[in-house]
Write a structure and sequence with these properties.
Elements lengths: L1 H47 L11 H12 L3 H10 L1 H8 L3 H16 L3 H17 L8 H17 L3 H17 L7 H18 L2 H15 L11 H16 L1
């Protein structure tokens, strides 16, 4: 009887240990997942929330120099320069249009190097900052067109067509409402063509056709015809079948 009692008590202890282990493991998984989400949100908030530190000067010189470096086809050098002053830019202008523009420039040079992951990270924060501004403090239309365009192209390269479609459409919408001098015709053509290609990749034939019809209406760009079957090949095949039948 005593042995049986020890045995039962032992089972109870083992069961308790297993239950505690399972609950701790489950809690640990949830906590880890929660931490990942929180880190991304917290990172974004360091750029979007808070008051600018007026004792710190915004890095105007580096901001302007990065633009010239990009023109000189030196995006890697521009990236290093912008990243070296990113904290200064963030602290001096957190949550402002000025910081949003800084992040757009960083997004552009990252895109140029094919670093779509980081380009999207900073680009999404930049556009959030822009849209959080009151109307009188928002940047001019080309800045919105820029960030939506580059986000769309990065998502497209990652085959995330739904996101790419959303940003291409937004870029076209902003461009269409802006004065003609602010967005070049060549860029508009690129946006329409890219959106049509995204629709094609998604298999949305009707939507693709509408965009291509709009391109023809605006820029006289011919609508590509679907490849026709080779009739001569078809006739040869049918003649061969006919000969086989006669035999």
């Amino acid at each position: 009887m005593r042995i049986q009692g020890y045995f039962c008590n032992g089972l109870r202890v083992v069961g308790l240990v297993i239950a505690v282990s399972v609950s701790m493991t489950s809690f640990g998984c949830k906590k880890t997942t929660g931490e990942k989400v929180d880190q991304a949100v917290l990172f974004e908030k360091t750029f979007t929330e808070g008051e600018p530190d007026l004792t710190i000067e915004f890095p105007e010189e580096e901001f302007a120099q990065a633009k010239e470096l990009r023109k000189e086809k030196k995006p890697g050098t521009a990236e290093k320069l912008l990243l070296s002053k990113l904290e200064v830019a963030r602290k001096s202008s957190v949550g402002t249009t000025k910081l949003g523009k800084y992040l757009v420039r960083l997004n552009n040079v990252l895109f140029d190097q094919g670093n779509d992951r980081d380009a999207i990270k900073y680009g999404e924060i930049a556009q959030k900052i822009f849209y959080d501004q009151p109307l009188e403090k928002r940047p001019l239309a080309p800045w919105f067109v820029n960030i939506h365009s580059y986000l769309a192209m990065s998502y497209n390269r990652q085959l995330k067509y739904e996101e790419a479609e959303k940003h291409f459409k937004k870029a076209i919408q902003v461009s269409s409402n802006a004065p003609k001098a602010e967005v070049s015709e060549s860029w508009m053509r690129l946006l329409y063509s890219s959106l049509a290609d995204v629709y094609k990749a998604e298999g949305k034939k009707d939507a693709e056709l509408k965009v291509r019809e709009r391109m023809f209406e605006l820029y006289k760009i011919p609508i590509p015809k679907e490849p026709e079957k080779d009739k001569s090949a078809d006739s040869k095949d049918s003649s061969k079948k006919g000969k086989k039948g006669k035999r």
